[in-house]
Amino acid sequence: MKQQICKDIYWVGALEWSKEHFHGHELSIRHGTSYNSYFINDEKKVLIDLVRVSHADDLISHIEEFVKVEDLDILVINHAEPDHASALTKIYARNPKLQIYASRGGHISIKRHHPQVENINVVKTGDSINIGKRTLRFFEAQMLHWPDSMFTYCPEEKILFSTDAFGQHFASPERFVDQVDQKGLWFEAEKYFACILTLYSAQILKKIEEFSKLGWELAIIAPAHGLCWRENPGQIVEKYVEWSKGVNREAAVIVFDTIWGGTEAMGRAIADGLAEEGVSYRMFNAGGADMHDVMTDILTAKAVVLGCPTLNNGIVPTLALYLEELRGLKFRNKIGAAFGTYGWSGEGTKRIEAGMQDAGIEVAVAAVKCQFNPSAEDLEKCRELGRELAHKIKGS
User: Which residues form the domain of 267?
Assistant: First the structure.
């Protein structure tokens, strides 16, 4: 299964088809994923990153199409999270003389997960090692997405091994982005950023600027999950800049939950108001939607509209999950509005607005709420909320 990335550099990782969620239940993965490991066949036999220990046998069989594990000279661990490094247990057991290169944070992570491992060489931005005909340079990429993250660059082939940055959860027998369906691929690239990296947007912009100043040319970006970028590899870097800056479309995402249908009717009326003003929208029922897919839509939409009935003097648990996710991700440059029904007390919309503010979302239009079931007048207020929000979206 020799899959060449470029001259003397091969993918030796593993494909993951069976999981529906990643990081426990933190993130849904609809297209599977891959654990990418790369072998460099030079005077020194080099491995860049590993795989999840559950797939270690796949990794070993792929490596041994070239050399025995015992004959590997160097292992670079760009990021020591278990999905990229837990196979170290099996590799190290067979080759305890292996020289390991990692960042300072990587050294800490490796020793915490694998205290038996020795021969860890700590590197920093600007350090390099010679492996024969090629050189490997290192760049510290903290918080893309762990404190231990770093990039490894081979200038002779202009290939960047970018660990979790610029990847996607996408399993495929192909190895390059341009070989697969673009719609599905780009959705997964956006989802990966939205649900994993958004919180670190400021750090991402800082690190991309720092990396750009190095002047390292890119022919291929080889991430730790998903497919490699070879046709205009800078396109994914440009998207990371755009997403990190919070560049938004004139669009809204409406998320609601409902008990007897009243809140859904209000959400539909708000959607009508948006559409009347030419603003596109997506609408999701929080009780049945995939929250991570919704967050992907929110990544590039200007407005977030949330609604539910008041329950137990608060909001329904399904919507509370969305507010907590929004608070954690801290999307940039978003505006929002709340709506909902109530039976007696009606605190729900205030709770939603407070949650939006805690997530850094500006409440741009006053909430609309109604008792029990919306009347024709209530629905018109909802349409007006949609129209007013559309004007805010267009004017921002």
Answer: 252-391
Asked if 277 contacts 384 with a C-beta cutoff of 8 angstroms, the reply is no
Confirm whether 164 is a catalytic residue.
yes
Among 245, 279, 295, residue at a domain's last position: 245
Nearest to 54 by CA among 17, 25, 79: 17
As to burial, measured by CB atoms within 10 angstroms (0-12 exposed, 13-18 middle, 19+ buried), residue 213 is exposed
Does residue 240 carry a catalytic annotation?
Answer: no
Chosen domain end from 245, 270, 287: 245
Catalytic entry in 92, 101, 153, 192: 192
Dist. CA 104–CA 127, nearest whole Å:
13
Tens of pLDDT, residues 234-278? 999 999 999 999 999 999 999 999 999 999 999 999 999 999 999
Active-site residue among 225, 342, 353, 378?
225
What pLDDT does residue 24 have? 53
**Distance between CA atoms of 394 and 375, rounded to whole angstroms?**
29
Place of tokens 């005077």: 43
* Rounded CA separation 32/276 (Å): 39
